[in-house]
């Protein structure tokens, strides 16, 4: 395909992430730092899982298709578990760092709340995983050809871009829910995050039946979004107030509270 | 060196092919594998390919394995050949089944440009070049992205020659000053089938493909995607092809040689190379090679043949009849003369010369004559007694050998008569029918013309044709072993084929014997010895097999050094120079008992400047080879046009042919998506971006209301 496809797919995959970065993160240096740190933690988890993958492929029987498929499923599960482990590790680190920041700062309150940290680190995870899942594909989308000479669907690029968008947003929601659950020590919620992550990852095994993987992923994304909205302090009432623009008293109330 | 390294393309094989060569001229090829790492894991867990997690590139492109391009050559005034743009030319595949189909490509097709797949019959069948499909495509080149010619398995029965009808028209002896009536083939058109296709310039790439898996994939892809049902327009996605053959040089030799000298960077980029290689020569008596120029009391009879040929495509130059018959006959003659010239040495020396680059305005012979005129050669023109050139001598049943000589020198004196008489005498003893063409007919295109250009030397060119060439495939890819009937029963192993006696070899052996006997008499040998001079039909058969079918055979393995042995391949060798050198050494030289060290230092007991010592592999005895040393008088001499030494790039006298360099030659097929789908993708992308910018702005500006639970005032800082 051509440059049009490249830009189209890039905008689909990273449009929401870029918008979030521009309006909520770019202006505050502390958030940028935590975003990059989150991306780094995701990278380390990838490094570990690829190490394990590399070794296991070497020792496996390359001819046996069944074994290779089993290995792939093992790799996916391992990678998901490692990512969630690193999310927990990052949470622990941020708790420690926040205490340190509190002692350093002259103000009485923390410079960044744990909820904001959850959102920022989730987006960091999303950015990096999105980049790794789609950059290969984007690089090939610039060339003159499109997928299909071996009979594959020609919507490969488009569906990859939509899948990446979902993955980025899901990581953000998972981050918010996961950190909130850790704060409140609701371990069933942590388990729900891990399980939904596993489910989404395994849904990609449905490919190239793109509808079968994309539709459930977007359903899960919507549910996780709602959950994350509530975890972040949102409610139906707030939403109603916001939509009907009856927020003036609250603004005033908030100002007074400060 | 720059090469396409794609950061994200893990499984790409980027090979940098940089070739300096031409058809059968000298070849240096190196290919460096730049990237070949293929980690199995990119991110497994997002990998879209599902279980078969391969590189995306493999899902899009099918690379063609066997591609032969047509490349660009330049001379003093023109550029010929083909090229693609720097990033490769892309076109929708169209398999041309008949000439009527051409209309689709040139006017009615809806999705230009087209990549035309041409069956070989459509490439070769035409009576007039102007009416040929290739020229029609050239004229409509805005709708043509490139052409792929599927090489046929059989030769076209009506004949085909993409060469000039009058080969080497301007570089031979006949000119407006020598004999205007004979110049420009006015008297005889040598190659009437020659269309001049090889000398056209095309601004799209033209490739040749073998009939194999690749062409199967192409045809299948075309059938599945590009054939609309019932004459309707085919629907996207369409099958397309991309060809890369970008040529660095443009305009003419003077321009590209000037650009060769410009060094902007530390590693200078060459854009073209002069065509050139080496001539091979050997003498029946060692000639002192340290002193150049005239040799007192030395008189030589030159026996010449040419080594090169060409075709429309790069590096496909079988030249079976046009070159191989001549040099194989001369090699066999040299072998027949070995014993007799050692036992009963004739008065004159016979100098066997094998010229390279004769197709391109006589590069090899003009160089040798130039060196002889400037005292850079072991002999000079005064030493030459006469010249006997062996041209195309593949004899068919009931055909004769024709003794061509120059009508202009015949007019002046009668020296030619001696050589003709000797040839007739020799032919009388072997039973070959010989005849002379009409007295007004000029010489056919031959190296001897370059000697005549310098001085009226007596000489004869022997050919198998009276006037026009009997070769119907002159300088084309069809002038091959099959045309000479060098074919074998299908059930033979390579070694059995090698030993198989051939019918054509019998006739060629008779020619070789005739040439050998005539040379012996011409050199002043006694006629009583003639019966002992006989060429060996076995050797001729084996040389035909080795030069035309498969260079990797047991005999060639024995007579070459180990460095060259690894270059012997399963097919015809595209560089016969070195093979001819070693064969000539083995056929005319003798085995000497010296150590490898002495042999490589060119000495027997003391330093010997005049002979040439070669350490060759020898016969395989189990796993070890019994290497030995061959002493001969075989030497190489440069076959590079003097125009490049003189830096006269617009020379009228010498060949100015150069070959452009290139970076990569490759082809791949793939599907192209409809422009509508591409626009839709871009539109959706821009829509998603704008929508998310808008939504995020709204949410972030109202974050304090949306996310205010009251329990945690800190969130209000959003």
Tell me what the structure shows.
The complex is a heterodimer of chains A (258) and B (718). With 258 residues, chain A is mainly alpha-helical. Chain A has one domain (1-232). Chain A is built from nine helices and no strands. The longest helix of chain A has 40 residues, at 65-104. Chain A is globular, with a radius of gyration of 21 Å. Chain A starts with a helix and ends with a helix. Chain B folds into two domains: 62-260 and 268-272 and 664-676, no CATH class; 277-589 and 633-640, Zn peptidases (Aminopeptidase, 3-Layer(aba) Sandwich). In chain B, α7 (320-336) crosses α14, α9 packs parallel to α12 (448-454) and α11 (416-430) packs across α14 (503-522). The radius of gyration of chain B is 31 Å and the shape is elongated. The interface between A and B is large, with 87 and 73 residues.
Report a brief summary of the structure.
The complex is a heterodimer of chains A (258) and B (718). With 258 residues, chain A is mostly helical. Chain A has helices at 3-25, 29-59, 65-104, 114-141, 156-184, 187-203, 210-231, 236-244, 248-257.
Which key terms come to mind for this protein?
heterodimer, A: 258 residues, mainly alpha, 9 helices, 81% helix, B: 718 residues, alpha/beta, Aminopeptidase, 2 domains, eight-stranded mixed β-sheet, disordered N terminus, disordered C terminus, Nicastrin (chain B), glycoprotein (chain B)
**Ends distance of chain B:** 53 Å
Structural class assignment of chain B: alpha/beta
What can be said about the biggest beta sheet of chain A? Answer: none
Q: Which CATH class of the largest domain in chain B?
A: Alpha Beta
Radius of gyration of chain B: 31 Å
User: How does CATH name the architecture of the largest domain in chain B?
Assistant: 3-Layer(aba) Sandwich
Number of domains of chain B: 2
């Amino acid at each position: 395909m051509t440059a049009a496809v490249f830009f189209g797919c890039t905008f689909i995959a990273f449009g929401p992430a870029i918008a979030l970065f521009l309006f909520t993160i770019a202006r505050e240096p502390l958030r940028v730092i935590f975003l990059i740190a989150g991306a780094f933690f995701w990278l380390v988890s990838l490094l570990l899982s690829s190490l394990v993958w590399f070794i296991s492929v070497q020792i496996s029987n390359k001819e046996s298709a069944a074994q290779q498929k089993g290995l792939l499923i093992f790799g996916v599960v391992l990678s998901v578990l490692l990512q969630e482990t690193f999310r927990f590790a990052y949470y622990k680190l941020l708790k420690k760092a926040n205490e340190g920041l509190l002692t350093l700062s002259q103000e009485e309150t923390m410079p960044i709340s744990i909820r904001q940290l959850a959102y920022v680190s989730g987006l960091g995870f999303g950015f990096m995983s999105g980049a790794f899942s789609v950059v290969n594909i984007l690089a090939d989308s610039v060339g003159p050809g499109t997928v299909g000479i071996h009979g594959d669907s020609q919507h490969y690029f488009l569906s990859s871009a939509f899948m990446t968008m979902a993955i980025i947003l899901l990581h953000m929601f998972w981050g918010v829910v996961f950190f909130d659950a850790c704060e409140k020590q609701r371990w069933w919620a942590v388990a729900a995050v891990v399980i939904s992550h596993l489910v989404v990852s395994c849904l990609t095994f449905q490919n190239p039946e793109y509808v079968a993987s994309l539709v459930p992923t977007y359903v899960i994304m919507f549910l996780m979004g709602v959950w994350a909205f509530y975890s972040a302090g949102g409610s139906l009432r707030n939403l109603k107030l916001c939509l009907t623009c009856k927020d003036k008293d609250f603004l005033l109330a908030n100002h007074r509270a400060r | 060196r720059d090469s396409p390294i794609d950061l994200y393309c893990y499984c790409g094989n980027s090979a940098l092919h940089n070739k300096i060569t031409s058809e059968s001229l000298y070849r240096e090829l190196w290919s460096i594998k730049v990237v070949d790492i293929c980690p199995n894991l990119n991110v497994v867990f997002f990998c879209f390919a599902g279980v078969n997690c391969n590189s995306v590139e493999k899902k899009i492109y099918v690379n063609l394995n066997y591609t032969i391009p047509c490349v660009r050559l330049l001379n003093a005034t023109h550029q010929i050949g083909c090229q693609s743009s720097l990033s490769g030319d892309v076109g929708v595949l169209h398999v041309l089944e008949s000439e009527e189909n051409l209309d689709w490509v040139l006017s009615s097709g809806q999705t230009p440009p087209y990549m035309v797949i041409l069956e070989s019959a459509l490439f070769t069948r035409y009576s007039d070049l102007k009416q040929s499909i290739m020229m029609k495509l050239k004229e409509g080149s805005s709708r043509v992205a490139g052409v792929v010619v599927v090489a046929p398995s059989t030769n076209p029965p009506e004949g085909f020659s993409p060469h000039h009808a009058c080969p080497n028209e301007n570089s031979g002896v006949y000119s407006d000053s020598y004999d205007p009536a004979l110049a420009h083939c006015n008297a005889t058109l040598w190659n009437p089938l020659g269309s001049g296709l090889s000398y056209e310039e095309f601004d799209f790439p033209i490739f040749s493909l073998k009939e194999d898996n690749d062409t199967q994939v192409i045809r299948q892809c075309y059938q599945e995607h590009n054939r609309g049902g019932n004459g309707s327009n085919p629907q996207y996605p369409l099958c397309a092809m991309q060809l890369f053959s970008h040529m660095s040089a443009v305009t003419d030799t003077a321009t590209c040689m000037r650009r060769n000298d410009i060094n902007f960077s530390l590693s200078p980029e060459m854009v073209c190379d002069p065509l050139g290689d080496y001539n091979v020569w050997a003498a029946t008596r060692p000639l002192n090679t340290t002193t150049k120029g005239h040799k007192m009391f030395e008189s030589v009879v030159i026996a010449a043949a040419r080594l090169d040929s060409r075709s429309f495509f790069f590096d496909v130059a079988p030249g079976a009849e046009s070159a191989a018959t001549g040099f194989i006959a001369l090699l066999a003659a040299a072998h027949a003369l070995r014993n007799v010239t050692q036992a009963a040495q004739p008065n004159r020396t016979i100098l066997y010369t094998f010229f390279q680059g004769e197709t391109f305005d006589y590069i090899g012979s003009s160089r040798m004559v130039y060196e002889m005129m400037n005292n850079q050669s072991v002999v000079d023109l005064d030493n030459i007694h006469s010249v006997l050139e062996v041209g195309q001598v593949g004899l068919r049943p009931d055909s004769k050998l024709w003794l061509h000589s120059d009508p202009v020198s015949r007019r002046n004196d009668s020296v030619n008569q001696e050589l003709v008489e000797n040839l007739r005498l020799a032919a009388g003893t072997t039973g070959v029918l010989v005849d002379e063409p009409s007295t007004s007919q000029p010489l056919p295109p031959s190296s001897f013309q370059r000697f005549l250009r310098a001085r009226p030397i007596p000489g004869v060119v022997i050919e198998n044709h009276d006037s026009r060439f009997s070769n119907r495939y002159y300088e084309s890819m069809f002038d091959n072993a099959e045309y000479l009937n060098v074919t074998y029963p299908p059930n033979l192993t390579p070694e059995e084929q090698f030993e198989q006696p051939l019918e054509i070899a019998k006739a060629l052996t008779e020619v070789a014997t005739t040439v050998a006997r005539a040379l012996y008499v011409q050199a002043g040998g006694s006629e009583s010895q003639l019966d002992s001079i006989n060429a060996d039909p076995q050797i001729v058969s084996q040389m035909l097999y080795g030069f035309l079918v498969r260079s990797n055979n047991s005999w060639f393995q024995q007579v070459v050094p180990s460095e060259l042995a690894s270059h012997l391949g399963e097919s015809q060798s595209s560089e016969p120079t070195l093979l001819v050198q070693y064969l000539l050494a083995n056929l005319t030289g003798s085995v000497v008992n010296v150590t490898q060290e002495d042999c490589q230092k060119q000495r027997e007991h003391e330093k010997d400047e005049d002979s040439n010592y070669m350490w060759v592999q020898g016969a395989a005895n189990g796993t070890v080879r019994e290497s030995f040393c061959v002493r001969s008088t075989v030497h190489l001499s440069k076959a590079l046009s003097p125009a490049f030494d003189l830096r006269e790039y617009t020379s009228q006298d010498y060949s100015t042919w150069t070959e452009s360099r290139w970076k990569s030659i490759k082809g791949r097929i793939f599907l192209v998506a409809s422009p509508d789908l591409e626009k839709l993708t871009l539109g959706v992308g821009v829509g998603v971006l704008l929508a998310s910018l808008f939504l995020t702005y709204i949410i972030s500006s109202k974050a304090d209301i949306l996310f205010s639970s009251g329990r945690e005032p800190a969130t209000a800082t959003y």
